[in-house]
């Protein structure tokens, strides 16, 4: 298992480019199951979750060729409409094939995901939505089986809580359903909008993506398309925090500044200078003291839960007390204990964490518990005195492509060791 060895103390400087969005690429790959024609996707990040989705699609019967960030997919036939436990347990986003498989093949068998490091994360809303569209659902042996032999039919689905992949899954199911589907209380994340754009290029009729009501008029069939995935806003945000926490000056390039608005506001309130040199870049400069600023995670356009851990690392270096409230997942503070081992003063009480700073951090051996927690430990290590060894970096490899090389190019002392 790989580890990162990081020696803190260097301010980051220079440009750091971001990749295509992992959380946009995953549903886009699943969407290719909706047509027998080829789909070409550009800017697919080279991360482990994408390889897992590739394996899943190949098992289902698709041809998937990936080269230099370009994926060519062709699902001329669905051979086995199934997502096995072996894959679903390593990546919950595997449930994104549920909607497209029922819509295209009339049947899907998908393993239930089980427990997760950051919260319960059930898929009951995906299932509820498919039922509204006329699928018959049966659960046995840890699997959900959904059948709709005569196809799905449009319906109104009101999500009783906002779900990103649930919205995406239902959107993919509804594009081939007979008649109109209305998704209410839908997720408004940029990844949902990106998926709607891809589906529209394939011939789907979708209105309202990016708002909380999405209307989909089903069509008989979809065709091939070519599409470029949006930049990864969480990767961009991670590098923005890296600039601020190290008192550096970094321009994050190839990103969409609009997608990181909530983070920009917090960085500015904390005392960092944030500018937008070009339409596709954000520059973050920090010198002098940072101030503590409270933060509550929310669905988009609120502050992303996927940046909460990184923000907590930043607050360990800010003057005062910051209250961080996590509203999306029940158990997403695992990084707090690891940061405490590095000297941070953090008290967690249920959904709320209180961070008192600034505290001088010192390097220690720490364990990454999930993708974004790992990223936050890297950030804490960049300002810690001495050496930090982060174990289980396979978590970070799920969603960040070459993070150590990108940070090192901006002056960080970080090394991957086996
Ligand atoms: C997506 O997960 C992202 N994953 C997550 O990214 C992200 O943290 C999350 O959205 C929230 O923004 C992908 O896009 C592949 P949800 P998702 O359904 O869709 C509850 C990362 O680090 N819920 O929006 O699985 C759920 O338990 C990650 O890249 C139900 O109760 O999240 C949670 O509390 C991890 N029933 C809340 O809703 C359901 O059927 C929001 O979850 C579905 C969800």
Strands, total number: 25
Which structural class fits the helix and strand makeup? alpha/beta
Distance between the termini: 6 Å
CATH class of the largest domain: Alpha Beta
What is the total number of structural domains?
A: 2
Rg, Å, rounded: 21 Å
Strand percentage, roughly? Answer: 25-35%
Poorly predicted tracts of residues: none
Unique bound compounds: ligand EPZ
Q: What is the molecular shape?
A: elongated
Number of helices, counting only DSSP H or I runs of 4 residues or more = 14
Reported by name, the CATH topology of the largest domain is UDP-n-acetylglucosamine1-carboxyvinyl-transferase, Chain
**Major sheet details:** 5 strands, mixed
Can you say what the CATH homologous superfamily of the largest domain is? Enolpyruvate transferase domain
- The helix fraction, in percent, is 25-40%
What is the CATH architecture assignment of the largest domain? Alpha-beta prism
Q: What number is the mean pLDDT?
A: 96
Which key features would you list for this structure?
418 residues; 2 domains; five-stranded mixed β-sheet; binds ligand EPZ; UDP-n-acetylglucosamine1-carboxyvinyl-transferase, Chain
């Amino acid at each position: 298992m790989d580890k990162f060895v990081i020696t803190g103390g260097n301010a980051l400087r220079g440009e750091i480019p971001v990749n295509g969005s992992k959380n946009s690429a995953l549903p886009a790959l699943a969407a290719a199951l909706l047509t027998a024609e080829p789909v070409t996707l550009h800017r697919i990040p080279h991360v482990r979750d994408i390889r897992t989705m590739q394996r899943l699609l190949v098992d289902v019967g698709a041809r998937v060729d990936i080269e230099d960030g370009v994926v060519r997919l062709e699902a001329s036939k669905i051979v086995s409409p199934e997502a096995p436990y072996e894959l679903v347990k390593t990546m919950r986003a595997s449930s994104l094939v549920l909607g497209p498989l029922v819509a295209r093949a009339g049947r899907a068998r998908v393993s239930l995901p089980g427990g997760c490091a950051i919260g319960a994360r059930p898929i009951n809303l995906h299932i509820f939505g498919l039922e509204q569209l006329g699928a018959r659902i049966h659960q046995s042996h840890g699997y959900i089986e959904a059948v709709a032999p005569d196809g799905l039919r449009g319906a109104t689905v009101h999500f009783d809580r906002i779900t990103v992949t649930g919205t995406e899954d239902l959107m993919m199911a509804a594009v081939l359903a007979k008649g109109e589907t209305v998704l209410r209380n839908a997720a408004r994340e940029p990844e949902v909008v990106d998926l709607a754009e891809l589906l529209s290029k394939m011939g789907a009729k979708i209105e309202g993506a990016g708002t909380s009501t999405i209307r989909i008029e089903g069509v008989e069939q979809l065709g091939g398309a070519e599409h470029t995935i949006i930049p990864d806003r969480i990767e961009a945000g991670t590098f923005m925090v890296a600039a601020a926490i190290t008192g550096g000056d970094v321009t994050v390039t190839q990103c969409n500044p609009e997608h990181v608005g909530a983070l920009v506001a917090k960085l500015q309130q904390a005392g960092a200078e944030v500018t937008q040199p070009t339409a596709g870049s954000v520059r973050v400069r920090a010198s002098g003291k940072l101030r503590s600023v409270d933060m509550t995670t929310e669905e988009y356009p609120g502050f992303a839960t996927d940046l909460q851990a990184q923000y907590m690392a930043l607050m360990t270096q800010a003057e005062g007390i910051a209250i961080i409230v996590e509203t999306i997942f029940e158990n997403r503070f695992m990084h707090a204990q690891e940061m405490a081992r590095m000297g941070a003063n953090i008290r967690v009480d249920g959904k709320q964490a209180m961070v008192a700073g600034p505290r001088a951090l010192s390097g220690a051996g720490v364990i990454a518990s999930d993708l974004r927690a790992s990223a936050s430990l890297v950030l804490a290590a960049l300002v810690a005195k001495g050496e930090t060894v982060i174990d289980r970096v396979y978590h970070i490899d799920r969603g960040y492509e070459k993070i150590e090389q990108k940070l090192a190019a901006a002056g960080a002392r970080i090394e991957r060791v086996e």
